[in-house]
Amino acid sequence: MPQHDQKNSAFIVIDIQNDFCPGGALAVAGGDSIVAGINQEIEHFDHVILTQDWHPAGHSSFASTHEGREPYEMVTMSYGKQTLWPDHCVQGTHGAEFHKDLQWTKAELVIRKGYRKAIDSYSAFFENDHMTPTGLGGYLRERGIKHVTLAGLATDFCVAYSALDAAAQGFKVTVLPDLSRAIDIGGSLQTMMSQMRNAGVAFR
């Protein structure tokens, strides 16, 4: 059970969507195995926020939009390095929907990200240019939230980027590794875990 002050804490559930679960277009191994635990965690928080990848068709982060490129290759965009992905979480598709077992109706806010065609968005707080805000930081501050707990998919991308941005925004941050799963491309999990530790993120 989490140790926190209900009034100033929020649980941010990252991208528990069909395309990131087994059988999905960008499946994370064991992605569906964390749903039950996340549901239990949701029960202990008064404030629950969800993120949802929400790409338009032909998004610039899709390998299919770059002739001759394959998924998981790295390219340089105007905003920096970008991993190319299989087409996933396209707006209005089954793959973009939350996993059917996720008990998400308690959520007071759903942050949709990656909906700008020319830029990807891993973090719940900023687009990948690290400059364009989603508005989540302001939402949390206006409600007096000081501590955020994060879990979901994937540990080394959207969870980690969100945790790092939350810490940089001045929030106390806890990540639940047991309720997150990683893609782990070229050692990305170890790299991002180290970055989170160095930023003062706690793990429970």
Describe the protein.
The protein is an alpha/beta fold and 204 residues long. Helices cover 20% and strands 22% of the residues. The protein has helices at residues 35-43, 136-142, 155-168, 188-198, and strands spanning 9-14, 48-53, 74-77, 80-83, 109-113, 147-153, 172-181, 202-203. The strands form two sheets. The protein has a six-stranded parallel beta sheet. The protein has a two-stranded antiparallel sheet with strand order 3-4. β3 and β4 form a beta hairpin. α3 runs parallel beside α4 (188-198).
What are the key terms here?
single chain, 204 residues, alpha/beta, Rossmann fold, 22% strand, globular
β-sheet strand percentage: 15-25%
At CATH level 3, the topology is Rossmann fold
The CA-CA distance between the termini, in Å, is 10 Å
Radius of gyration: 16 Å
GO biological process, one term: pyridine nucleotide biosynthetic process
Enzyme class: hydrolase
GO molecular function: metal ion binding; nicotinamidase activity
InterPro entries: Isochorismatase-like_dom, Isochorismatase-like_sf, Isochorismatase_Nicotinamidase
